[in-house]
Structure formats: structure tokens, C-alpha cells
Amino acid sequence: MNERQGFSIGGIPFVVVCLVLAGIGASQLVGLKDGGVPGMPLFAGAGLLVLDGFLLKGFFQVAPNEGQVLQLFGKYAGTVRDEGLRWTNPFCSRRRVSLRARNFESGKLKVNDNDGNPIEIAAVVVWQVLDTAEAVFCVDDYENFVHIQSESALRQMAQNYPYDAHDDNKPSLRSHGEVINNHLRDEIQARLEKAGVQVIEARISHLAYAQEIAHAMLQRQQANAIVAARERIVEGAVGMVAMALDKLREQGVVELDEERKAAMVSNLLVVLCGDRATQPVVNAGTLYG
């Protein structure tokens, strides 16, 4: 079922019509009160007032970014999106549907990632209704439908990726935010298509390991950070030692045999790679003493 334009006319001109009918009906009744003979004027005046009251039921208002879904005896009669005061068939029932962009944050879901690790994840979804007919008639409660299907899509997406990337070419939940958000938006949109809803944006708002493995995973992350830092330190220290030896050789400051070079390199690496301050020892004797 697709949305179509419903019948309605401007409310302000029709207000004039209702006032004219009410005036004619009231004049008929006033004429009887002034001594007129009861009969056709009585029925005409009363009938016009009753008709006028019935026509007043056809007035309704449409706010900006809002649609009024019309139903005539249970059948879909169209949607009115024209802003302002409108009038339609008084027999039509009306239901307001907001077309504004809305957002919600899902609860923290506990799922297993692609590696089988339990994680906690939540997302913020921005959405709006595009087709009012599908939103009202294709699902029972479109707002509840959006919430439940969004959480289902979030679970499905989280199971397709690991929390941390062990391979630079493989996206992960923690490192590839744009890829993950786009995948999540597409997953939600595929589920909400039948409800006439468009997903504007979907983003991860909370991501963490579950409490039972959080401490172990934190230690692993700390170990990875320490190893990476040590690699950087060793790489820099080796470069500094090589530069020192080259400078000594180029400037002819001192000539060292291979054994003394090895001792110097060992001492420099201890000083440069150690995580504590070193205490210098001054050699007061000869070089070979």
C-alpha cells in the first residue's frame, strides 16, 4: 500500500459557507419566534443547523511536517499534507502521523562478536516516516516496530565483526567506525522498508567488553601497548647507537676494536632501553686496565 493524496479543501473558505448556513437556519427560527406560522420554515431552519453542525466535524488542522491519514468506513482515503486549516468529508476518520525526524537510543545489548567474545553495544538511530500509508496500515505500531527492528539489526551487525582488528584489512567494531555505522544503517533500513520509514543515520553510542571478560581483555590491550612501545624504543635506541658509532668513526675521536664496540653497544642499549634511570660509573683507570 502506497501513500496517495487525500481529498481536502481550504478550511477558511468553508468556514464562510458554514456561517452562511448557520445564519440562514437561525433566521428561519427567528422568523417563527416573531409570529411566523410553523411548518416548512421550522424544518428548514432546524435541518440547516443540524447540517451545519455535521459539516463542522470535517474541519481539522495540519501542522508543518505532519500528515493526516484519512479513512472512510475503514478504507484508506488518502493522506493530507497541506498545512493549515483543512476540511474534508465529515464521515472520514483521521489519524495524525508526524513526518519530523526522530531519534532514539537503544538499550545496552549483550551479544557475542565475530570472535565469540561477549560485548555490550548500543546505538543511536535517526529516522523519519516517508510513506504514511505503509506506516499506519502495514505494521501495527510503527514506532515500536522501529525500536525492535533496530535492536535486531544491531545484534546481527555486531555478530559480523570482531571487537578488535587482528588483521589490518579486516574491519572491526572499535577501529572502523564509518564502515560499521554504514552497515548498521543499511541493516536497519532493510528491516524498516516495509513500514515506510527512512533511516537517516545510525551510529554506535556504546561499545565495551562484557564485565566477565573486561579485566582479561584490558590486560591484553595493555600487553599489546607495552610490546608496541618497546618495539618503538628498541628501534630508536638501535638507530641512536648506530649514529653514535658512525660519528665516532667519522670524526676520529677514538678507535675501538670489535670487543670494545660490543661493550659500548651493550651499555648504550641498557641506558636507552631501560625503564629506570641509570647511574653512571666513571672509569678512572686506563681503557684496558
How does this model look, in words?
The protein has helices at residues 11-33, 40-55, 132-137, 142-158, 177-192, 211-251, 258-273, and strands spanning 9-10, 59-62, 66-72, 75-80, 84-87, 92-98, 102-105, 109-112, 118-129, 197-209. It is an alpha+beta fold. The protein has 3 domains: 9-97, no CATH class; 102-209, Band 7 domain (Tetrahydropterin Synthase, Chain A); 214-273. Strands 7, 8, 9 and 10 form a 4-stranded antiparallel beta sheet that branches. A 3-stranded antiparallel beta sheet has the order 1-5-2. Strands 4-3-6 form a 3-stranded antiparallel beta sheet. The termini are far apart. The model has no long low-confidence stretch (mean pLDDT 84).
